[in-house]
Each structure stands twice: as C-alpha cells, then as structure tokens.
UniProtKB/TrEMBL annotation:
Pfam families: DUF3455 (PF11937)
InterPro entries: DUF3455
Organism annotation: Paractinoplanes ferrugineus
Keyword Zinc: no
Descriptive protein name: Tat pathway signal sequence domain protein
Signal peptide range in chain numbering: 1-32
Length: 208
C-alpha cells in the first residue's frame, strides 16, 4: 500500500512539473513538499509537455496533448497551473436512491501564484489575494474510465483583483478518481470521493 501511494505521488509531481514547464515564464511558487502531498493522476496520464520557449514568446506557449475537444481558444495564454493537494468530489444521494452524475468539489490547490480553494459553484478563490472566479463547463469533456472527465470550463464571473482577474477559461487535466459511487444509497447521504487533477487557467483573446 505504501509503495503504491509513493508511486502515485511521484506521478502526480511529474504531471505538475510537466504542466509548469509548459507554461514557460509563469513562476512556480509551490514547494516540492506541497506538490508531493497531492493525490497523483494515473500513470497513463503522466504525459510529457514540450519544453517552454524563452524570451518574449514564453507566455504564448500551448500545452500539447490537451484533447482537441477541451482546448482553450487559439491564442490563449496560460496564467498559472495548480495541482489538487487535498480534494473530494461530493455526491448527494437523490430521492430515487442513487447518486447523481453532478458533484460538488471541495479541494485545496497549490501551484503558480500560491494556494487556491476550489468549492461549490464551481468556484476558485486565491488564498493569496482573494480574487475569485466561477465557471461552467463548455461541454462534457473527455471521459476517463473510473475518474471524473478532463474538462474545459468558461469563466462566467470575477470578484476582486489578483491572479485570477484575467482568467477566461480553465482546463481540468490529469484527472484521477472522483467518479460517482455505484450502487444504491440512502436519500440525502453524501459520499466524498477523493480525486486528483491539475487546473490550468487561461487568459483568452478578446471576444473568445
């Protein structure tokens, strides 16, 4: 069990490092210990990201291997990437005695720009400067067996000024776990299912 957890943590750190490398000039401020605490994505998703360009074009880099279905608009610039260090997808059993497909997140993220609280809305709030965004998914995303899907979400509200102020889109990538429980349940019962993911925030061109 311990060796399995260590391998999952190692893969999670590798996935985050790959994404951070891909966003170039954005500074990664999380400590190695904070990243190591994250629930790791599955090994199959430890996909390499191309080295970041240098100089004036560093922030214009795209992250390869994002499925075409969930790519942000062309010309989008990455603002930052954050890994889930502790998170659950929470499902409330319906009156019909089964868990619905929809869930409510409750997670702590760490990455470029410090820490973010991810919660109902869905909402993301910087713990460094209190800037906050809410967003809705653009489509159903990319399905993954046994895990919540990878997604592209479009931000629909901003509150405050800070690291999230210019964000227009969010990718949820490298997902593991978090899928709704199978079988019957007691109406009103809440199931908290642990998950891992990396969230990338994008500043899109005007009008996107």
């Amino acid at each position: 069990m311990l060796s399995t957890r260590r391998s999952r943590v190692a893969v999670g750190g590798a996935a985050m490092a790959a994404v951070v490398a891909g966003i170039g000039a954005v500074t990664f401020n999380a400590s190695a210990a904070e990243v190591a605490a994250a629930p790791a994505p599955q090994a199959a998703d430890a996909r390499a990201v191309a080295p970041a360009p240098q100089g004036a074009d560093a922030r214009a880099v795209s992250i390869p291997f994002i499925n075409q279905l969930i790519k942000p608009p062309a010309g989008s610039r990455p603002i930052g990437a954050f890994v889930v260090t502790n998170g659950t997808q929470n499902y409330t059993c319906g009156a019909d005695g089964v868990f619905p497909a929809a869930s409510t997140p409750e997670a702590q993220l760490v990455g470029t720009g410090g820490k973010i609280h991810h919660f109902a809305g869905p909402s993301w709030q910087s713990l460094r400067d209190q800037s906050l965004v809410t967003a809705g998914k653009v489509n159903d995303g990319v399905a993954k067996a046994g895990s919540i899907p990878e997604l592209l979400l479009k931000i629909n509200s901003h509150t405050g000024t800070g690291i999230l102020s210019k964000a227009d889109y969010i990718n949820r990538l490298f997902t593991s776990g978090g899928a709704k429980p199978a079988g019957s349940c007691t109406p009103g019962q809440v199931a908290k299912v642990r998950y891992g993911a990396v969230y990338v925030f994008w500043d899109a061109p005007a009008g996107s």
